[in-house]
Amino acid sequence: GQNIDQPTEMTATEGAIVQINCTYQTSGFNGLFWYQQHAGEAPTFLSYNVLDGLEEKGRFSSFLSRSKGYSYLLLKELQMKDSASYLCAFVKYSGNTPLVFGKGTRLSVIA
Amino acid sequence: GAGVSQSPRYKVAKRGQDVALRCDPISGHVSLFWYQQALGQGPEFLTYFQNEAQLDKSGLPSDRFFAERPEGSVSTLKIQRTQQEDSAVYLCASSFQEGGAAPSYEQYFGPGTRLTVT
Fold first, then answer.
1. So what's the pLDDT on residue A94?
2. To probe the interface with A, which of B56, B107, B108, B114 has the most A CB atoms within 10 Å?
3. Is the minimum CB–CB distance between B106 and chain A shorter than 8 Å?
4. Is B59 within 8 Å of A98 when comparing Cβ atoms?
5. Does the pLDDT value for residue A13 go beyond 60?
6. Which of A 5-44 lie inside 8 A of B, CB atoms?
7. Do residues A54 and A61 make contact, with C-beta atoms less than 8 angstroms apart?
């Protein structure tokens, strides 16, 4: 079977750093995505990891360990606008194939 | 350029009615996906197309759900005899433009159609 797990909710302070973890089990794996979704809006792409290691993109970084079935999204210098749900998703097959999403982590950034 | 658009944005249906949800993908995108998102949950896969071919419909919850993409562009998700458990946001996403810059696996999502069945 397949499973993907991430915390339901997190709270962090403006200006701080937060790490959102994601673990997955699957028989097929071809990459790990992170999406951001503000309430009532479409998910928007943040990152895609297919190889082990850290990918940095501005204030956001994403890490993948394929052997451990583990990823995290790191958000630095948190801003109020970062309050949103963060969706972890893997793709089983190569090419443009369906994503398997976790339930999402709702992040609240407080002053 | 224009992103993925969906219509209607909101739909209220009485139980037993049929509904049709439309998705206009990004021009030139080959792949089109439909997902269902319940409140407070992540999106769940329903079906997807490559051009006009429906490659996987294993996520459709019942035979009341039907999707088509006859000309390989616009897609319609139809739900017959709606039930209360069909209430959700239906998201459409498209990806992969031939000749586009890598990576091309990113899926671009539309704003969704919020369906409420009363």
1. 78
2. B107
3. yes
4. yes
5. yes
6. 31, 33, 35, 41-44
7. yes
A101 touches chain B (CB under 8 A): yes
| Residue A107: band (very low, low, confident or very high) from pLDDT cuts 50, 70, 90 | very high
- The DSSP result for B47-70, as a single string, is EEEETTEEEE-TT--STTEEEE-T
* pLDDT (average), residues B33-39: 96
Identify whether the C-beta of residue A108 lies closer than 8 Å to the C-beta of residue A9.
Answer: yes
Indicate the pairing of strand A105-110 with strand A9-13.
Answer: parallel
Q: Please name every residue paired with A11 in a beta bridge, in sequence order, or none if there are none.
A: A108
Q: How many CB pairs (< 8 A) connect A and B?
A: 57
Return d(Cα A30, Cα A28) in angstroms, integer: 7
Q: How many CB atoms lie within 10 A of CB B98?
A: 8
Residues with Cβ within 8 Å of residue B100, at least 6 apart in sequence? none
What's the CA gap between A105 and A46, in Å, rounded?
A: 14
Q: How far apart are the C-alpha atoms of A62 and A79, rounded to whole Å? A: 18
